[in-house]
Amino acid sequence: MNVYEGSLVATGLRFAVVVARFNSLVTEQLLSGALDALRRHGADEAAVDVYRCPGTFELPALLKRVALSGRYDAVVALGAVIRGGTPHFEYVAAEATKGVAHVALEAGCAVAMGVLTCDTMEQALERAGVKAGNKGAEAAAAAIEQANVFKAVVARAGKRAD
User: Fold this and answer.
1) Residue 15 in contact with residue 76, Cβ under 8 Å?
2) Is 115 exposed, middle or buried (0-12, 13-18, 19+ CB in 10 A)?
3) In the chain, what are the domain boundaries?
4) CA-CA distance, 121 to 123, in Å (whole number)?
5) pLDDT tens string 9-41
6) Is 2 helix (H, G, I), strand (E, B) or coil?
7) How many helices (H) and strands (E) does the chain have?
8) Which sequence positions are flagged as catalytic?
9) What does the buried/exposed string (b/e) look like for 3-32 if buried means 16 or more CB atoms within 10 Å of the residue's CB?
10) How far is CA 46 from CA 50, 51, 83, 84, in A?
11) Which CATH architecture has domain 15-161?
C-alpha cells in the first residue's frame, strides 16, 4: 500500500493570501496568523504575495484570478462574515463558501479556506487568535500540506510514465 500525504514544509513553495478588507479587525488578525504560519514553516517572505479585496463576497472572484495565474503552489482565502439582524449573513456566507470551493476544484494549485462565519464579533475575534487559535494560521498550514501532496501526485504520475 502506498500512502501519500503532504508535509508541513513551505520551503521552495510560492503562496498567495487573498484577504477581505471588510471586518478588518478580524481579517487583519487572520492575515497575521497566516503569514506567521507560512514563515514558521519555512516560506520565504519574497515567495508570499498578499491580495486584498473589498469584502468576503468579492473574495472568490479575486481568489480565482490569483489561483489560475499559475504563479502559486497554494492560495489562502481569508475573510469574516458576522451575523447581523438580516438574512444578508446567510447569502454572503453561502456564496463565499461555494465560491472558494469552486475555485479549489478548478485551480491548478492548492486552495485553503480561512473564512470565518460567526454569530458575533466576539466569536470571530476568538477564532482570529484571542482564544480559539488563529484560523488564518490553520488555513496557511492546510495550504502548505495540500500543496505538498499535490506535488506528490505530480511526482507519482511522472514515475508511472517512465
Assistant:
1) yes
2) buried
3) 15-161
4) 5
5) 999 999 999 999 999 999 999 999 999 999 999
6) coil
7) 5, 4
8) 88
9) eeebeeebeebbbbbbbbebbeebbebbbe
10) 11, 14, 36, 38
11) 3-Layer(aba) Sandwich (3.40)
E strand segments, the chain:
15-20, 48-53, 74-82, 110-118
User: d(Cα 111, Cα 59) in Å, to the nearest integer?
Assistant: 13
- 144: cell is 502548505
Q: Which three cell numbers stand for residue 22?
A: 471588510
Q: Which residue type, as a one-letter code, is found at position 127?
A: R
Report whether 33 contacts 136 (CB < 8 A): yes
Q: What is the pLDDT of residues 79-128, one digit of tens each?
A: 999 999 889 999 999 999 999 999 999 999 999 999 999 999 999 999 99
Per the listing, cell 438580516 goes with 86
Residue 162: count other Cβ atoms within 10 Å of its Cβ.
Answer: 4
